[in-house]
């Protein structure tokens, strides 16, 4: 069973990140995945100890941040329906705004980004970033106002107000905040470090976390 868990957690694209580490790569990948699912560093340390691997929680912290430097962008998609929204987060006690977009058919998180404020300009900047990463030529954006319609028009993208189907992005924010709120109400660190953590969580959500609504598949598996 342990071999299966380690095999499932292993991702070959991260090999370069694990160079010069004395702990076996699948063990480190398993620990990083445990932390992404919601275990604290010390809880992850205890689980590894029960499996016969003795490592300090500081080592696990380094594994998490090292892998964060190598997390790839979400796979390129050609969505037909995209929900976009923003939510407030606190970094060092100060409010920032996290924008996110989800492919409503595959549940793939297309991108996340942090801004110091909300409004039309940040929305347009976020949407422009999406156009550089995905094929949005046939995408219809579902938004709740807040400057999005103006931003979409500015970029020549199609969209309309929707308060039903777009709840998938709100559900994702809820999933994310359940993970965050378990340990703290405000991130401590730079915006860059928060962005790294978010990218790692998105990678876990897209490629490793099975979804009941997708018949136990991950969004990346459905996309492919």
From TrEMBL:
Which top-level group of life is the source organism from? Archaea
User: Which residues does the UniProt record annotate as the domain DDE?
Assistant: 81-171
Name the job this protein performs: Involved in the transposition of the insertion sequence.
- What name does the UniProt record give this protein? Transposase-like protein
GO-annotated molecular function:
nucleic acid binding
Q: Name one Pfam family in it.
A: DDE_Tnp_IS240
């Amino acid at each position: 069973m342990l071999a299966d868990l380690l095999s499932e957690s292993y991702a070959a694209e991260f090999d370069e990140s694990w160079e010069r580490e004395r702990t076996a790569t699948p063990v480190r990948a398993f620990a990083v995945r445990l932390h992404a699912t919601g275990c604290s560093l010390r809880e992850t340390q205890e689980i590894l100890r029960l499996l016969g691997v003795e490592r300090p929680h500081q080592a696990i912290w380094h594994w998490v941040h090292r892998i964060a430097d190598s997390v790839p962008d979400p796979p390129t998609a050609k969505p037909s329906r995209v929900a976009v929204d923003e939510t407030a987060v606190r970094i060092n006690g100060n409010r920032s705004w996290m924008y996110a977009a989800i492919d409503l058919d595959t549940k793939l998180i297309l991108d996340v980004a942090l801004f110091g404020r909300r409004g039309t300009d940040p929305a347009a900047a976020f949407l422009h970033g999406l156009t550089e990463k995905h094929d949005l030529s046939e995408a219809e954006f579902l938004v709740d106002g807040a400057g999005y319609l103006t931003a979409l028009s500015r970029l020549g993208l199609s969209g309309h107000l929707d308060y039903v189907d777009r709840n998938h992005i709100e559900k994702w924010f809820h999933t994310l905040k359940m993970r965050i709120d378990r340990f703290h109400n405000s991130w401590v660190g730079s915006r860059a470090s928060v962005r790294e953590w978010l990218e790692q969580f998105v990678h876990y959500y897209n490629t490793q976390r099975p979804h009941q609504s997708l018949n136990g598949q991950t969004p990346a598996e459905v996309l492919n």
